[in-house]
Amino acid sequence: MLAGSAGLLSPRRAFAQSQVSLQLSWLHSTQFAGSYIALKNGWWQENGLEVSLLQGGPNAPVEPPVISGTALVGISAADYTAAAVEEGAPFKILGVAMQKNPFAIASLAENPVNEPSDLDGKRIGMALANMPVLEALCQLNGVDISAIEVIPTQYSPQPLVAGEVDCLLCWETDLPVAMTIQGVDNVTMLMADHGYSVHSQTYIATEDSLANRREEIVALMSGEVRGWEKYREDTDAATDLTLEMFPDAGLDAETQRLQAERQVPLMFSDLTDENGFGWWTDETVAANIETLGLLGRTVTPDLWDRSILEEVHGA
């Protein structure tokens, strides 16, 4: 049992059933299966909440509905939140779902990129918007970025499979999964294993909500914690639930199962085993601040507020 489990909220909250929304960062898939489990099992209702899960997507940024109050909590990432805070948004990061950032370098097994120095002389396919990410990785690892040929590509494994590039900058849980499903032998180098520390799939709320809707946030995060711990126990069951809840989302069962499986080591670690889902330390925040600085974002440790998780986990 995870250390935080005993402290999870289970009795019904003192307030009446409140209708709140959780803004997801992307389209429905197993990426958010822990939330689906919490909803399906009625764990939010136990704590006095009626929760709506708002789908994200390319044209549905997380931050505006959280600022407007349409969503009580949103799922974002530290770099997006840092950018919003620099523009005056009153956000706090309440929890960290992905302990490791999912950015990876994917390559074919016959010509692998196993460590940053292997990028020397390689052609990398990527969106030019992600140049700061590549630059940060190179700076963290002493790699000369001028020795890498950057080729703008669409977000697809095809340029790599066709030999147009030697590697791709992508998420660990999508393009490598697609290639594996297609039978293409590939390897991934997770950037988080080489110093790229940016918290991802983070829970954000406004300072006003933290001050005035604290009980609801605690209840919402309690359900999230329970849902994700259940997800970890059986990712196949989590995938089945996702497919059942969203039959018209165009989700491929085999792809979703592999994505759900590969997400687990990104979300759970010795740190979460000891302290509970979503946890972070002063050391992980310091590493985030360093990497965010390389991305051109200036933040301070008080962007992270662990008090909600401490209450959820009974710390």
Ordered list of secondary-structure elements with their pairings:
Elements: E1 18-23, H1 33-40, H2 43-46, E2 49-54, H3 63-68, E3 73-77, H4 78-86, E4 91-98, E5 103-108, E6 123-126, H5 131-141, E7 149-152, H6 158-161, E8 167-171, H7 175-181, E9 186-190, E10 200-206, H8 207-212, H9 214-233, H10 235-245, H11 253-267, H12 270-275, H13 282-294, H14 307-312
Parallel strand pairs: 1-2, 1-3, 6-7, 6-8
Antiparallel strand pairs: 3-10, 4-10, 5-8, 5-9
Helix pairs in contact: 1-9, 1-10, 10-11
Overall structural class, as computed from helix and strand content, comes to: alpha/beta
Give average pLDDT, whole number. 94
Q: Low-confidence segments, ≥5 residues, pLDDT <50?
A: 1-15
What is the ordering of alpha helices and beta strands? Answer: EHHEHEHEEEHEHEHEEHHHHHHH
| Helix percentage range | 40-55%
Strand order of the largest sheet: 2-1-3-10-4
Shape: globular
Strand content: 15-25%
Report, as a whole number of angstroms, the end-to-end distance: 16 Å
Largest sheet: 5 strands, mixed
State the total count of DSSP E strands. Answer: 10
Radius of gyration (Å) = 20 Å
What does this structure look like?
The chain is built from 14 helices and ten strands. By secondary structure, it is an alpha/beta fold. The protein is 40% helix and 18% strand. The strands form two sheets. Strands 2-1-3-10-4 form a five-stranded mixed β-sheet, sandwiched between helices. It has a five-stranded mixed β-sheet with strand order 7-6-8-5-9. Helix 1 (33-40) crosses helix 9, helix 1 packs across helix 10 and helix 10 (235-245) crosses helix 11. The chain is globular, with a radius of gyration of 20 Å.
